[in-house]
Amino acid sequence: MSLDLTPVWLTLKLATLTTAVLLVVGTPLAWWLSQTRSRLKQIVATLVALPLVLPPTVLGFYLLLLLGPHGPIGTLTERLGLGTLPFTFAGLVVGSVLYSLPFMVQPVHNAFEAIGQRPLEVAATLRASPLARFLDVALPLALPGLLTGAVLAFAHTVGEFGVILMIGGNIPGETKVLSVAIYDHVESLEWAQAHWLAGGMVLFSFLVVLMMNLLGQRMRRIGHG
Predict the structure, then answer these.
(1) Going by C-beta distance under 8 Å and a sequence separation of 6 or more, which residues neighbour residue 188?
(2) For the ABC transmembrane type-1 domain, which residue ranges apply (predicted)?
(3) By the 8 A CB rule, do 17 and 157 touch?
(4) Which residues, 6+ apart, have CB-to-CB distance to 105 below 8 Å?
(5) C-alpha distances in angstroms, 28 versus 109, 121, 167?
(6) DSSP string covering 4-66, please?
(7) For residue 104, how many other CB atoms are within 10 A of its CB?
(8) In whole angstroms, what is the distance from residue 25 CA to residue 112 CA?
(9) Phi and psi at residue 24, in whole multiples of 5°?
(10) Which residue from 49, 20, 47, 46 is spatially nearest to 157, judged by alpha carbons?
């Protein structure tokens, strides 16, 4: 039995890049949602949470339209000389970021709201700038939420299938990630290869849930302390 591990490394690469992008994009967004009184807050929060209830194939379909050669984003990327994003690894990253966005934003948002205004008000009385209050007060206090969001986003990206297949297809070495490889092995009746990859996913999922439970216990201890 020969087992190609390329989809495994491609999946880990995709999950790592997606998590990094979500940390950079999702953290300021979660902070804005926790602090703003804008009328747009509920609309933005709803849009962020939409992938939780939207079928992955629907999201993938509209991403294909937007990023394709006739879509507004696809037209822009072609004019910039970047080509189109569907059926490329970059397209997978874009789709994964959008699909996993709520798994990053919501835990971080909750962590920021749990801080309350008191520590920020104390920092303001010490003449700390808004940026300093965010970097030196809010982020350290919200670290458990950041870790939770990062773990959830990484794990969710590893297990993606519908969006990945719609936006990336099944190109070996480029867009054929672990979930698609398992599907291929099952479709080809290659049960042994499917067992190895699927069993690895079961073990990975168990470790993620265990890590989340331990992290939750740690957060409760900090809260009681």
Answers:
(1) none
(2) 8-216
(3) no
(4) 26, 29, 30, 33, 48, 149
(5) 10, 19, 27
(6) --HHHHHHHHHHHHHHHHHHHHHHHHHHHHHH---TTHHHHHHHHHGGGTS-HHHHHHHHHHH
(7) 31
(8) 15
(9) -70, -40
(10) 20
What does the alpha-carbon distance between residue 214 and residue 225 come to, in Å, rounded to a whole number? 16
**pTM: predicted TM-score of the whole model, two decimal places:** 0.86
Tokens of 95: 């789709």
For residue 214, CA distances in Å to 25, 151, 159 come to: 26, 12, 21
Instruction: Say how far apart CA 151 and CA 138 lie, in whole Å.
Output: 20
Residue bearing tokens 């205004």: 117
The model's pLDDT over 31-67, given as tens digits with 9 standing for 90+, comes to: 999 998 888 999 999 999 999 999 998 999 999 999 9
Cα–Cα distance between 57 and 171 in angstroms, integer? 18
